[in-house]
Structures are given as C-alpha cells and as structure tokens.
Amino acid sequence: MGRTAVVMAMAMAGCGLAVLATASCAMPPAPPMSPGALPKAAPVPTSAPSLKPPLSPSPPSPSASPSSPSASASPSSPAPPSGSGPAVPVGDGVVTAADQPLLAAARQEAGAAVPGDDAVIVINRGPSGTGQLAWMPDERSYCLAVVREARARTSCKALPASWARIGVRLVTTGGTTAARTVFFAVVDGGHGPYGYQGRAGAAPGPDMGPVHDATAVFASGRTLSLLTYERTVGVLTPGDHDICSADNAICFPALDAYAG
C-alpha cells in the first residue's frame, strides 16, 4: 500500500471514531455551480391574458356622421294641408235658392274654383245681386268673393300665422267697388251677431255700412265668424268705431292698424 492510501485510511478511521463521539463531522459543501449551469426563472406575466375575443369596431351612427342628411339642418318645408276639411256654413250662412245668382257670378269668374253649395258661406245678401260669399278649404286659408252687379271679384289667401289681437285672426280689405271699400274679418268663435260699438255712445257715420257676419264650422269642431262691412272711399269719420260681438267677448277697431 502506498503512503497516500495509508494516510486516507487513517483519516477515514479517525472520522468514524469522531462520529461516534460527536455529530460535528459532515461532508464538505459541494462546490458552487457555474453561471451557465444555473436554471433560468420562468417569466412572470404582468397581467392575465384576456379570454374574450377582440371586439370589432362599431359602425358610426348615421346621425353623427357629418355627411349624413340628419346631421345637417334640413330646409324648412311648407306645412301640409290641414286635415280638418272644408268649413260648412251654419244658420243664415247656408246657401238658399235666392243665393244662386251670387254663386253663378262667382263661378263665372275665370280661375275661381268655387266648391259645392254646401261648402259656401253666404256673409251678405245685398240688393240688386250684390253680396259677399266665402269658403275655407281648411282652417288656414280662405277665399272671398265680392259680388257687384252680377260680377264677382274673388281673392284666395292664407290666414296669417300670428295676429296682434286675441281672437282676431284677420282684418283686411276685400276690394273696392262703386267707391266703397269692403273689409273682411275672421275671428274665433261664434259670438254673433257683430255690430259697431261707438265711443261715448256715438252712432257710426253714414260712410260706414252695416256689419254682416256668418258662422263657419270645421270637422275638427273649430268655429269661426266671417265678417264683412263697407266704408266709403276717402271719407274719414272722427273717432272710428270698434266692432264687437254680441257678448263683447271680441272687439277690434273697424279700421284696424294691421288691415291690408
């Protein structure tokens, strides 16, 4: 046996005797591993992956698109015709056999589309084939025929969208014939008869003709009063009178500021 082997045998024998006496004898620690042999740590995800599929982008709303017609201001369009239907006369405004010359004169006028007798309102039956007729295709428009000597002058217009006096929808001139100006008024409600109401009890002058009125009713239930009255052209009566209903619910100046 060589010297080296004898020394190792003696050391192991001494260690075995030491183990029996004490537990301090242990195997020397293993040498450190080289850096290349160290295991790599698994990467830790910063956030859990989403299990939901990606959402597809929503299409733009038509109202939000600048090129969409609804996004731009649409031009104003005229109001559609009213569904109330034509007005029908009530009471003395209903056409009678004696009124046929007035209707014939109105129908002879070129371009005057006069409806049937049941839709014509007779406002005034004057002497010698004179008078005033009216018809309203709906609640927003009217036609007035002023008849003189079997000849009619007809005008058809729309009622104004707003008016200055409560209950008074229109005061206008219906034409001038025989040196007389015919005034035409449309007021709310059936509060007839209408007449002059002078200031301080004064009677109307001779240049101011009587007030005639008739009642028109629509299918919607709306009731209007149609008035005509005359005045001599060029004559001014001091202290013009008001025209009022029988119950004084509606009054307006006979020559109102917005007459035209």
UniProtKB/TrEMBL annotation:
What is the organism field in this record? Streptomyces yangpuensis
Coiled-coil features, chain-numbered ranges:
none
Q: Which UniProt keywords apply?
A: Signal
| Superkingdom per UniProt | Bacteria
Bias (Low complexity) ranges: 64-76
> What are the boundaries of the signal sequence?
1-26
Outline the segment boundaries, as ranges, of region: Disordered: 33-93
- Official protein name in the record: Lipoprotein
PROSITE patterns, from UniProt?
PROKAR_LIPOPROTEIN (PS51257)
Pro residues bias: where? Answer: 51-63
